[in-house]
Amino acid sequence: MKRFLISAVATGLALALWMPTSTVLHASDSDLDELQRQVPKKRVVRKKTPKQAVKKKAAPKKTTRSNTARRSATPRRAPPRRAAKPRRKIRRVVRARPRERAPSGFPPAGETRFLSGEVIVRFQLASTQAARDALIRRLNLRHLSGRTFQLAGITAHRYQIASGAAVGSVIRALEASPTVVYAQPNYIYTLQQSDGKKSVPQYALDVLSIGKVPDAVTGEGVKLAIIDSGISAKHSELADANISLHDVSDAQDSELRDGHGTSIAGIVSAQKRLRGVARKAAIVGIRAFAKTDSGKTIGNSWTVARALEVARDQAAKVINMSFAGPNDPLVGRSVNGAARRNMISVAAAGNAGPTAPTLYPAGYKAVIAVTATDAANALYSKANQGTYIAVAAPGVDVLTLTPNGAFGASSGTSLAAAHVSGLAALALQLNGNLNREKFAALLSRAATDLGEPGNDPKFGAGLPDAQRMVQSVNPGS
Questions:
Q1: What whole-number distance in Å separates Cα of residue 202 and Cα of residue 409?
Q2: Using CA of residue 125, residue 127, residue 130, residue 135, what is the dihedral sign?
Q3: Burial of 398 by CB count in 10 Å (0-12 exposed, 13-18 middle, 19+ buried)?
Q4: Comparing C-alpha atoms, which of 146, 152, 202, 140 is closest to residue 394?
Q5: pLDDT in tens, 111-145
Q6: For residue 287, what are the β-bridge partners?
Q7: CA distances (Å), 241 to each of 225, 247, 329, in order?
Q8: How far apart are CA 226 and CA 269, in angstroms?
Q9: DSSP states of 216-283
Q10: Element (H or E) spanning 311, and its range?
Q11: Where in the sequence numbering do the catalytic residues fall?
Q12: What Rg do the C-alpha atoms of the chain give, in angstroms?
């Protein structure tokens, strides 16, 4: 019976497995229990939840040299670039140029020694060209020239007054404008020489002891600038001299119509019948004076300042200025600039008379002012006097050269200045480090006192002795 039941159950189970899942097989509970015990149970694999599927971190591998090499060979990914911070804008502060200041260039009361139709103007560096042009148009001025004067350290412009207005009124109008530093007249300078009454053959050589100076001391190697009316280098006395010629004058042609510059050059460099004080010095002849239609030979602020620039450019160590005129802002600044460069400036004291006011450029502290004496060491009657006089030198009835190749006699502080300029060349040959102060001290120590004891307003320190001066020059000073 049992066998029958078992076989029946088995048959039924097989049919149940074969039949569709929707078919229901009825069997007793005991039979089902028995069947479950006999049929092996299937293993149920449950799917892990996302939390359970988290992998464990792998243990770090040991680093070997090969691994390190691989990692180093493998290019690393660059970190993401950060956005660049905006640069701060640097504000450039443009400072306005300070307003330049200088004394007014208006001429002193009663001063008339200037060209009636011209002015010289110095503009503010910060001013615009448009503002300058508007001012010039309003005042009806015509531009003649403009340049930077290195010695003076300024840029200036020369204008013609086309309207015919008075110089003083134009200067007032110019200086009232904020574009102008100052304006000044174009002052007139005149040569300080007149015809002599008689000729005393080179008494200056004895008075100054030039003949006692060693023959080797001739001023050789020293450049001496002569700012004057031009030099006739064709004169027989100057044919063998070392002379270079330059022209900055207002002359319309190159013809020399005044012999003043030739006579000054002869005192310094005469070679044959006459003996120059420094006959081997290199002369830089600068023409800054010319004859006008009225017959007067004049220079002016502009031409004199330009001549000083030429002297600087030519490396002159001595500047002879045998002319005189009013106190001049442009020329004054140029002379001071020359002194700062150790250029020795020598000027004529002037022939306006003992009661006349100070004349310039001799009146500037940076210049050695020279008065004139005669063969008896008496003061020239027309010479200016004042505390600015440094020394005296022969200047009355001096034998000089004339442009036509002849000789003449002349008087004036111009000739006295030329003698002292020659002495400066002698001293500089022995000591090239001399400046104005050192040379003035040499002259004073070697001078023969004239007039009142010590320095006086007539003769200054007195009459220098060339022999004593040369002996006292210290080459190392």
A1: 10
A2: negative
A3: buried
A4: 202
A5: 999 999 999 999 999 999 999 999 999 999 999 99
A6: 228, 247
A7: 14, 19, 35
A8: 11
A9: T-S-TT-EEEEEES---TTSTTTTTS-EEEEE-S--SSS-----HHHHHHHHHH--SSS--TTTTSEE
A10: helix 301-313
A11: 228, 260, 414
A12: 52
452, 456, 459, 461: CA torsion to nearest 10: 100
pLDDT band at 254 (very low <50, low <70, confident <90, very high): confident
DSSP lists the bridge partners of residue 392 as: 371
Q: pLDDT by residue (tens digit) across 45-95?
A: 555 555 554 455 555 555 555 555 455 555 566 666 666 666 666 666 656
Answer yes or no: are the C-beta atoms of 345 and 316 closer than 8 Å. Answer: no
Q: What is the pLDDT of residue 15?
A: 40
DSSP 333: H
350: left (phi over 0), alpha (psi -120 to 50) or beta: left
Q: Please state, in angstroms and rounded to a whole number, the distance separating the CA atoms of residues 412 and 157.
A: 33
Q: Give the amino acid at 422.
A: G
Task: Please list, in sequence order, all residues whose beta carbon lies within 8 angstroms of the beta carbon of residue 434, skipping any fewer than 6 positions away.
Answer: 342, 344, 424, 427, 428, 442, 473, 477
The pTM of this model reads: 0.79
* CB contact set of 308 (below 8 Å; sequence gap of 6+): 149, 151, 227, 319, 331, 334, 335, 337, 338
Please state, as a whole number, how many other Cβ atoms lie within 10 Å of the Cβ of residue 59: 6
Are the beta carbons of 470 and 430 closer than 8 angstroms?
yes
Query: In this predicted model, what pLDDT tens digit does every residue of 380-404 receive, in sequence order?
Result: 999 999 999 999 999 999 999 988 8
Reduced to 3 states (helix: H, G, I; strand: E, B; else coil), residue 438 is helix
Question: In the prediction, which pLDDT does 27 show?
Answer: 45
Predicted pLDDT of residue 13: 45
In angstroms, the CA 240 to CA 379 distance is 34
| Neighbour-count burial of 16, counting CB atoms closer than 10 A to its CB (0-12 exposed, 13-18 middle, 19+ buried) | middle
Which range has highest mean pLDDT (7-11, 324-328, 399-403)? Answer: 324-328
Structure tokens at 216: 């080797």
Whether the pLDDT of residue 436 is over 90: the answer is yes
Tokens at 315, concatenated: 């490396």
